[in-house]
Design brief:
By secondary structure, this protein is an alpha+beta fold. It has one domain. About 45% of the residues lie in helices and about 15% in strands. Strand 1 and strand 2 form a beta hairpin. The relative contact order is 0.13.
Length: about 80
């Protein structure tokens, strides 16, 4: 945990120094109580996701799950049929 906290403090400075290199937080990192897992909601390009993953490896395991507006998914699905 100490390594993660130290890296997190450095990461905050890195975000200020290099805006646009990493994802934009829509919902900042949050932890699940009593667990070593957490989540955040971000807006990011594939390049920004890669930069973020490289930054945190090997301390954290990153998993990205797209969140999409249902109406847009239905619209795209209907166009593809």
């Amino acid at each position: 945990m100490d390594k993660v906290i130290k890296k997190f403090v450095e990461y905050q400075k890195e975000l200020e120094k290099n805006p646009g290199k990493y994802q934009k937080y829509i919902y900042p990192p949050h932890a699940f109580g009593g667990e070593t897992k957490g989540f955040s909601i971000v807006e990011a390009t594939p390049e920004q996701m890669a930069e973020n993953t490289f930054y945190w490896t090997p301390l954290l395991k990153m998993t990205y799950k797209p969140i999409m507006e249902s109406a847009k998914i239905v619209e795209q699905y209907l166009k593809s049929r």
